[in-house]
User: Fold this.
Amino acid sequence: MLGRRSLKPELFFEPNQNLGRRRTKRTERTNMANNEENVVGGNNEAALPALQARFIPNAFEVPSCIELPAINAAQYEIKPGTIQSLPTFNGLSQEDPYAHLAEFAGICSTLRIENFPMGTLKLLLFPFSLRGHAKYWLTTLPPRYIKT
Assistant:
């Protein structure tokens, strides 16, 4: 038969561990003064790398496989309803890619934006019509692979 002490898990204690004691206002003021001195005064070299690290992006944008030609339109807006009206293609074996392209071209032909070429509009909207395996296929193409 085991006693109560043998059923409790072992507790590990590190002697240098902070046990959640509140800092006094004096300690906080001292720390703030030291930080201001490092930023404003003498030790700018130490603060500079930390500041530069904040401006370096964490993730880089992967270039698109679709290269869009220059757009002459000063302003244009593609409404969410337009994107929702596009046909979807998942890349499954029972789907017909030619039927998808025909339906996609038909819907794009109903859209008009001033000073915006139809080919550019199709290139811009095409990724929104793909889902699943087809979307994955599009992302695996090399950058600027599709131009027309």
Summary: The longest helix spans residues 25-40. DSSP finds seven helices and no strands in the chain.
